[in-house]
Amino acid sequence: MSLKDYEFWFIVGSQYLYGPEVLETVAKRAQEMADTLNASGNLPCKVVYKVTAKTNAEITDTIRDANHDEKCAGIITWCHTFSPSKMWINGLVNLQKPWCHFATQYNREIPNEEIDMDFMNLNQAAHGDREHGFIGARLRTPRKVIAGYWQDKDIQERLGRWMRAAAGAAFSKTLKVMRFGDNMREVAVTEGDKVEVQAKLGWQVNTWPVGQLAETINAVTDAEVDALMKEYESLYDMATDNIEAVRYQAREEIAIKKMLDAEGCCAFSNTFQDLYGMRQLPGIATQHLLASGYGYGAEGDWKVAAMTAIIKFMGEGLKGGTAFMEDYTYHLAQGNEYSLGAHMLEVCPSVAAGRPRIEVHYLGIGGKEDPARLVFEGREGKAVVVSLVDMGGRLRLICQDIQCVKPIMPMPNLPVARVMWQAMPDLKTGLECWILAGGAHHTVLSHDVDAEQMRDWARMMDIEFVHIGKDTTAESLEKDLFLSDIAWKLK
């Protein structure tokens, strides 16, 4: 399913105490609110008004239906009037979808001349939302609380960002990852418990033989390659005379895509240590697949492959870009510190500042032919880097705020995609915090999501979240990690 195919059910709380006229007004206003939100252009998915819930049975039945509706990615609740929270218990304890408690009210301002007891009985969101908030806290149910006026753009946009995280959670539950070969030998951080990950996050992570991929590559026709080459030429500048190397990358891309699509996989990993039967390590083949929305992880890193696919899905329709990334080296000039992110070949062109170039160069690793790859500089702007690591017994999602900049030097002899950034709160503190948290060298870099969305996603998936931002210190983070370790062991 595409992001826009998901919907969110709007469930409004009330009770029979107020009489039929009030309930009719509540229902009418709830539908108006849903229609207005949908027409705003600030939400990526549709809000569907479902019910003004007045009884335990109505709430329980609606939530049960939401659990079993594949188009429903979550519920949004609001209490226009006072909705006694005991009647929400049976539904909420069985809720299996993300929940946003929308703390708002129909009217923006208190109407000085019109306010009377009838108005007070009808407009009790301040009363109802507190009762509703208590039961969420009492049941320890994971939820997002968004407070503010429902017609304000910033509130709508915040709701939209939560929707993207919830749709990412739904996408995660169906995600399949294809592994070509195993992890890079002796590397620790790319390992992980695939059984626990499937139970927790829904990912199906399995291996297909590299030999099968080689056979599929050899079966690709010249006509198929010709068609993809035309697409390459329309998107990228051809900056090489070695056209045969580029054509072989097209064969690899076509073959990988065929295998992914045949198995319903949206992400894949490979390793330069297992290229049996292949002439080149996939370069532009992987980069163009990434630009098409597939996830990828190098050196067998299936966790970052899956996270790349999920974050790309969350950012569907946005223009910032999301890429597989690796911290490569640092610029440590005092007061002018930067990280340089790159990889051998496989950074997604969605984060490029300009039109990428197709180049062919020697690659001193893998022992194969010189591969074609896309070379470009990354765009400027706010972004995050995200890493999922297996801590043994639990998963930890680490998210760091960064500010991407135009690379401060041209690096003419580095023929790969190059992205440069300033880490928050600064490079040295940010690096210390990243290492203390156990963050991997492979990450997902995204201009399309932020730390709040990644925290929301982690809450929905019931995993630990660590945020490194402008106010983080190594001392405070170390304390937080210690307390978190205790809490997750007791959970």
Could you describe the 3D structure shown?
With 491 residues, this protein is an alpha/beta fold. It contains 15 helices and 19 strands. It has helices at 20-39, 56-68, 89-92, 117-122, 125-138, 153-172, 194-201, 210-218, 222-235, 243-263, 284-291, 302-314, 427-437, 451-461, 474-490, and strands at 7-13, 46-53, 72-79, 99-103, 144-147, 176-180, 204-208, 237-238, 267-269, 295-297, 322-333, 336-341, 357-360, 372-375, 381-390, 395-405, 419-423, 442-446, 464-468. A six-stranded antiparallel β-barrel has the order 11-12-17-16-15-18. A five-stranded parallel sheet has the order 2-1-3-4-5, sandwiched between helices. Strands 7-6-9-10 form a four-stranded parallel sheet, sandwiched between helices. Helix 10 crosses helix 11 (284-291). The longest helix is centred in the middle third of the chain and has 21 residues, at 243-263. The chain is elongated and about 80 Å long. The two termini are 33 Å apart.
Could you give a quick summary of the protein structure above?
With 491 residues, the protein is α/β, with parallel strands linked by helices. It has 15 helices and 19 strands.
List keywords for this structure.
single chain; 491 residues; alpha/beta; six-stranded antiparallel beta barrel; five-stranded parallel sheet
